[in-house]
Amino acid sequence: MHRPFLPLLLLLSALASVAGGAVWFIQRDRQALVEQFGRERYTQLEEATRGVSEALDDLGDDLRFAGELLAQPGSTEEHRRELRALLEAVGQYRAIAVYGPDGAEQFSLVDRRAQLMPREASHATALADTARQALEAPWGRIVPSPPVADGSSRWMRVFATSLPADAPGGGGAVAILVDTEPFFAPLRLVTADEDSRLLLLGFHGRPSPLSDPEVATWYQRLGQGAGKLVPGLQALVARMRGGESGTLMLDERQAHRLGLGSADVVATFMPIRMHNEASWSVATLSSTLALRAHERLLVLRLSLAALLVAVFLVTFGAYVVLANRRAVALRESRRHAERLAHLHEKTQKILDHIPTGVLALSADDRISAVNQALRARLPSSALGGTLTEAFPSAPESVVQRLGELVTATREDGRVRSLHGEVLILFGEKGQYNVHAVPLEHGDEEVRTLLVLEDLSNVRMLEDQLLRAEKLATVGVLAAGVAHEIGTPLGIIRGRAEYMRGKLGGAEHPHGRGLSAIIDQIDRVSRTIRQLLDFSRIQPAEARAVLLGPLVLGLRELMHIEAERRRVRLHVEVPEHLPALAADADQLQQVLLNLVLNACDACSAGGHVHLRASQAPEDAPEAQGMLELRVEDDGCGIAPEHLHQIFDPFFTTKKRGQGTGLGLTMVAQIVRNHGGRVEIDSEPGRGTCVTVRWPVAGARWEEQHAV
Fold first, then answer.
1. Measured in Å, how far apart are the chain's first and last C-alpha atoms?
2. Would you report the helix, strand and coil content of the chain in percent, each value rounded to 5?
């Protein structure tokens, strides 16, 4: 009966251990917290001293500006007027005095708003003494004075600088009496906390009025042997006098003597620079008493949190005891749920990764799910829509046929299929197998599966296989024909020519018959040669070929053929065209086949045009290409034959007039040279064949024919 409470006791023990460890960790990490506290104080002091340094730099700039004014040519009255403007523009300036190179006063100005203050003898003495020190210092250096004895303020100081020796009058010095209290006002914000004290040492090492009185008293006692009582303060002062910056720690005993309570003190110090010279030094002494109080509060809060957690654990333990009987049932239910989720995920992944499209239809014929293969081809609004919305580009009859297939499979509960049907489902014709599959135990959301198997790629592969078989047949046929028929035909032709010569030529009654035999043998030989050329096409060895001379020779070669067919051949090849990257013989063979085909397509009186020009600049794929066009006004090509014209042995000529290999060879040669060939034809209006050929020097890739 007590066993269920054993884990609770263990948890409480662990919680107590964690709480004790946290308290120990906080105490151990106190040094890190103190260091962080010191960095924060240092950052605050740095921001405050930055404002003081900027104010002192402005004072130095004004003093040097006054020296530059006095170094300019001008009368004494003009200099007095300019310095008067400077004196009245800055509220902290009380008087300005100008001295000659011998230290004698030339003239002085007093702030009209504080005329009583600068009239004291100590002010004039301080101005003169500081000016003489500036005359002895290097030119451009600013010399500050100790605090000026004054019955009303302890912040008065004199700042002086010398004039260049080439100034009018041989040089001299200018001195300004300044109330420096507003300059050091930002430092008051650093010690606004009651646990912080400030020590500000002036240029001459004396504590300023802003310093804490008790700390300043201990500072003055350091020279009387008090350094043994507050060694931390003595080390701090030594580093301040050396112009250093950083942090120091003072223990509780020293903090108590300095009036900062019974806690460690973090001292941060840094110099205050005037034009990059360490003129003053400031330090803050901050007690960590508040940090220690915060630490105690944190421990208290942690203890309260541990108590609350303990109460919660006791309550939770009671709940665990009461719910123990339901744990087995819950685990079993979870196992079944995970199993179902795994099966669902596996089914979804299988459907998404098969290449066949599958969509699920609900009881009201709306699409409730689509797999990945079909989702990319359907509109985004297909899910939740009807078949008509899923196939917006399909004709109504096709969608109706799919709907009838789904209805039929629901009625008899059997799979219904369409095999190899040509359907327009996605905007273009395609061949599909369609299966409607009923689900016996499906819910209302999934009652029927419609499976679409696209056979277009299979048909394309079959066509490519047939083409490859044709090419293989050509190679075997060419080799056999060349070996078995070529030699006998050559012998027959030679005998026929010999007999025709013996009979006296074509004038003999049997001469015409022998000429017919020779012509037919030549036709058979040309067919064999085309077969051999087709099967032996080699990768092109491209060189720079000028199109003009090549076309000129072609025109002379084709002139007689065109006249025999009573067709006019027009050649337009500009002289300025660049050279082509081509095998000259293969390029001539391409043009010869295209011109012969164009002549064959024309009737008597027809026209064939051979043109060459630069490819249009607006076609990115034609960059670095030359366009060759062969146009005719012949019979044209039927649309259903356009996709077959490059197939081997396909021809629209009459039997015996062509082998169907000419355009196939043209296409292979052009591809081997990295070019392209296109055909545009319309029955009754003629044909235009466009060949884009790379120019010499352009990048092109050899493609070897198979």
1. 88
2. 50, 20, 30
Q: Which two tokens stand for residue 621?
A: 């794929």
pLDDT over 70, % of the chain:
75
pLDDT per residue as tens digits for the range 22-61: 556 555 666 777 778 788 888 888 888 888 888 888 888 8
Q: How confident is residue 487, by pLDDT bands cut at 50, 70 and 90?
A: low
Tokens of 434: 């369609």
Who contacts 639 (Cβ-Cβ below 8 Å, separation ≥6)?
Answer: 683
Cα-Cα-Cα-Cα torsion 556, 561, 566, 569, nearest 10 degrees, comes to -40
Q: Give the pLDDT of residue 701.
A: 41
In a 13 Å sphere around the CA of 648, the CA atoms on its Cβ side amount to: 22
How far is 49 from 58, CA to CA, in rounded Å? Answer: 14
Measured distance CA(221)–CA(211) in Å, rounded = 15
Separation in Å, CA 138 to CA 61, 134, 161, 273, 453: 17, 8, 9, 18, 97
Question: How far apart (Å, rounded) are the C-alpha atoms in residues 583 and 450?
Answer: 56
- Tell me if 147 sits within 8 A of 158, measured CB to CB: no
Residues 6 or more apart whose CB falls under 8 angstroms from that of 393 comprise 424, 425, 426, 427
Q: Are 158 and 144 in contact (CB under 8 A)?
A: yes
Range with the poorest average pLDDT among 63-67, 101-105, 340-344, 696-700: 696-700
Judging by DSSP bridges, how do beta strands 429-438 and 543-545 pair with one another? unpaired
